[in-house]
Design a protein that fits this description.
9 strands, single chain, globular, N-FG_amidohydro, seven-stranded mixed beta sheet, Aminopeptidase, N-formylglutamate amidohydrolase, UCP029730
Amino acid sequence: MTGYRWIEGAGDILILCDHASNTVPDDIDLGIDPALLDKHIAIDIGAAPLAEALAAQLGAPAILAAVSRLVIDFNREPDAPGLIPHVSDGHAIPGNDAADRDARIARYFAPYHAQIARTVRARRPALIVVIHSFTPALENGLAEPRPWEAGILYNRDARAARIGVRLLREAGIVTGDNQPYSGRVLNATMNRHAEATGTPYLGIEIRNDLIRDAAGVERWREILAKLVTDVRDHLAQGPLAAT
């Protein structure tokens, strides 16, 4: 099993989904109740079908992670403590205590990021879009409930984010600006493949109760298809389009 799933497309937008899967390879035992694999700690609920639907509508290439974030978290730096989590939202992951970090990086993390890097070099996308989802409230009680319907995350490069936040709010969507958490703190995939290459990007978070079913995915497919094409077109018009 490789670290990613590839969807072919000829469009100029590249779609990524770091937490698309809750698959745990047969030779890895996380030591957890299997029911946890359906929770947000294992997978970004609704993110994969939304990314797939968006890619289909836009004719865009897409790269989706193929194993659970509990096996390895693709949206982390290779030396980050949370790359292979030992606890997630209050749940212990005891099977990771003796995990071979280098082996998991080589088997899953490195191929995923190598495919993204190859695609960015070859395609030079006008915009990279990464799809995540967030839980309305953490089980550990360490954060306030999250009222946003969507969030746009970014680090230093806010070109696309400024436009995206404005357009979503103008559409009446309760939108977090670097919420429910800050891209200045956690933005590893976009730091590596967008900020480091000068490629504009949208880090999009959708509250997962809004995309748990096919109707929710369809609604947000329509919203995001318009959003990302409008952001791409605004960027093509130059800096004044962001105001």
